[in-house]
Amino acid sequence: MLDIKNLKASVEGKDILKGLDLQVKAGEVHAIMGPNGSGKSTLSQVLAGRDTFQVDGGSVTWDGQDLLAMPIEERARAGLFLAFQYPVEIPGVSNAYFLKAAVNAIRKHRGLPEFDAMDFLTRVKAEMKAVGMKEEFLYRAVNEGFSGGEKKRNEVLQMALLEPRLAILDETDSGLDIDALKVVADGVNRLRSPDRALIVITHYQRLLDYIVPDHVHVLSQGRIVRSGGRELALELEEKGYGWIGDAGEIHAAPPAAGGAQ
Amino acid sequence: MSAVDTWVSAFHARSAQQPGAALPWLADLRRQAIYRFADEGWPTRRHPRWQHTSLAFMDQQDFAANAVAPDAAAALARLRGDDAGHWLVFVGGRFNAELSDIGALPAGVQLTSLADALDQHPEAVQAAFGSATDGDSPAALNLALATDGAWLRLPRGVALEAPVHLVFITNATDASQHLRNLIVAEANSEATIVEHYLGEGEATTLTTAATRLQVDADARITHLKLQQEAEPAIHLASINATQARGAHFASHSLSFGARLARNDIHTRFDGEGCDTLLNGLYHLDGRRHVDHHTSINHAQPRGNSREFYRGLLDGNSRGVFTGRIIVAKDAQRSDAMQRCDNLLLSRAAEADARPELEIYADDVKCAHGATVGQMDEDSLFYLQTRGLDDAHARRLLTYAFAAEALDRIALLPLRKQARAALMARLPGGELLEELL
Fold it and tell me: Which residues cross the membrane (chain A) (predicted)?
């Protein structure tokens, strides 16, 4: 589904991604972990199409197409979804209008009939219930004055409504207490299916207790320095990121517990 | 002969036909006003209140009536829909009884054309008329030439439930129209007054308008002005309010039309505990220019003022905002807040926002801020990642920026009218129709 090869990206002349490789197949859940500044959010933004990041090399193929050549909205319409680490507040636009415009833009692209107001409301209310959002959030401005947890729920709501084929969750766990985390994780887990893939970007393994990944990758200094199964996340939880050298060189194996540099 | 002389000659030619021409006080006042205008001429950038808007070009500007008049009845029908309300329609600067529908009024309320009021209640009109020294020279020209306008007098304690709509439409015979609206709201009365300025056509026309509002103790007056003149029009207007103890005055100025529009909006707190809201929204494109020159005079203690102006500036347009706040020496515990925010939709558009604070009291809360910015890239990106294309996302954010101003209009039907007027101006507004 998604094939990233030797991806290099920079912002304002500063190299951030320095040759990243990742393959994601339908149905898989990949976790990308790494310390602050390792390039996790840059990866998600580059995949979604943010133009403040310059792609300096490598390729990203999406179902055989060059993803990097697609405009932002085309990526979304093709089924790529990014749940933002910091969802944007848009005063003056009701959440209801925003959600409906988004759903219909994507339905139109898929050749499905656009929802009318009634169908949309029925659908959105059901999904809101599932992520524990009160109906009043439909009539408030997009994310405006929402708490951290409410914003993240709104992201999961959008994901549920847009039914992406690949969803990237960028630090969706940050700023959430454990109850909110469970609700968000439940929302995400409901969407797991054999034809849908997930990339879960997180600093902490705690989210992975609830969204269990098939593959875990450690990102450091703009490269994936280690990949493994779920046990790798647990190992990171125990040992921290200290075993990753400053220059990002890869140790043959993480040092024993307590031996972090 | 300079253009100023042209207006003076026009004055002399018309003065005998002016409403109330037989009233000596009024004839005097008009003469004083035209002399003042002749003496001062059009303001230029040298004038401290006109630093960003020179009217020097008016000396060379020819005005002409449009070849074809807009269909006033149709324009009114579009605007009015099925609203019952009180509707006074003025075509080419004169009251049109046929199109108007004043409706039923509570006992004692006077709602007529100014011309009728001059016949029926000349003394009350005289007290409210204003003087030749008010405002700057365009205001003096208005006083001298005004042919009509609305007269509204609300007796003590009376509330008008439905808004009073004043509709001003250009015609095919007059190159200029000059309107004067006088509103006297006695203690504890309440009303909403809406001024609509409509025009169509290719000719350069001139509108001058002056609205004076006397808001007595504890009265509540909301004034909304929707300026949608034709693109080549020049629109010079002033709104002057005085507020007695505990009076509430809200002004919403929406400026969407005209090549050049100037609005002087002033209110003065003549009693304690007044409050005011000055809300404004302008949208400009092409080479158009709008200037809002506002002032709030906290002359008495414990007044509260809130002022919010927003501009959407496209093309080579220019939006000017001046917000003067005066807090007199004894006006303790005044609370004033002012914001002006501009969204530039093109590189060539220009915004000027100038707060002017004169604070002589020491126990005062006063905050002000101004921003000039472009479309927020984070918001655009967010919308695009949800499948909206660039154009739709931009329209939505442009609308959203303006919506904050619209949301301050408390009466829903008026907010909807204002929205419809904005949508009609925004490219691709039809995409956003569901927002209505």
Answer: none
